[in-house]
Amino acid sequence: MLKYTLKRLLYSAIILLFVMFLIYSLMYNMPGGFIEQKAYELASKPNATKSATEWLTELKAQYGMDKGVVPGYFTWLKSAVVGDWGDSWAWTLPVTEQFSNTVWYSFILSFISFVFEILIAIPLGIAAAKKQYSFTDYFTTVVSMICISMPTFFIATVLKYVFSVKLGWFDLTGMQGRDYAELSQFGQFLDVAKHFVLPSITIVIISIGGLMRYTRTNMLEVLNADYIRTARAKGVPEKKVINQHAFRNTLIPLVTTLGGSLPGLFSGALITETLFAIRGIGYASYTSMTQADVPFTMFYLAFISILTLLGNLISDLLYAAVDPRVRLG
Hints:
Layout: H1 2-28, H2 34-43, H3 52-62, H4 69-81, H5 95-130, H6 135-149, H7 152-166, H8 185-195, H9 197-223, H10 226-233, H11 238-261, H12 270-276, H13 281-290, H14 294-322
Helix pairs in contact: 1-4, 1-14, 2-3, 5-6, 5-9, 6-9, 7-9, 9-11, 11-14, 12-13, 13-14
């Protein structure tokens, strides 16, 4: 296992280098003169001490864009490896500081949604498989297909219209109410938690459909296996067949799928956070992209790449851990 893990980490590092090269190449060849625009913006400030030409030279040297693509990439990579990603143009903060200010909001939102997704989708998927072609199965199938088909912005709009506009239970957007400053510390916590309700429901709705279908499919495959028929033929109670034999083996592919989604808890829900103005990493990345914030955008894309590679590694390791028939070499 250790040898396999080290080998996968080495492969992941090589892949990450190529992915980061693609990210840098895209930014290097992006039309629009974003660096020139930033240089003129800095030079036009009242307290500016440098001309636009001086700022342009400094910015290009900082990100290696005064050289060719390959030399510039290694210049940028050298700074990135030691944690120097530059200053965010949109947020006027170091990129890493803005990241630390926003990522935990995304983690809390994603973690809450992740827990409810598991608690809702897996039991419904198992129930649909146990009662195949029944009302429960058809109902679960219809609900899952609806959840898969509906876009995020539509679900968010409906939730805001019903619970914010019509019922007035929640604010339309934001993370704090109007009287936030006047509340006690516990009251402020409840106020922020209240603003996370609708975004969490939105993420849960768009996520449970696929997991329900995946759970149902795997459960049906296990229930049709030979050892399940043998257990039933021996007179093993149906409850024991489902809970001890079928469910345990259904968890094998589910654990690997859920394990691969764990890094996604830190990547943020870009669309949902933007629609509800939750100041997470997804909202910050969207704002940075719309304002041509090259440093933060490059960091966010590299961060997503790392999470993706980490998720694949976790899935492979969990698959070997929960299924003794698999041997990693």
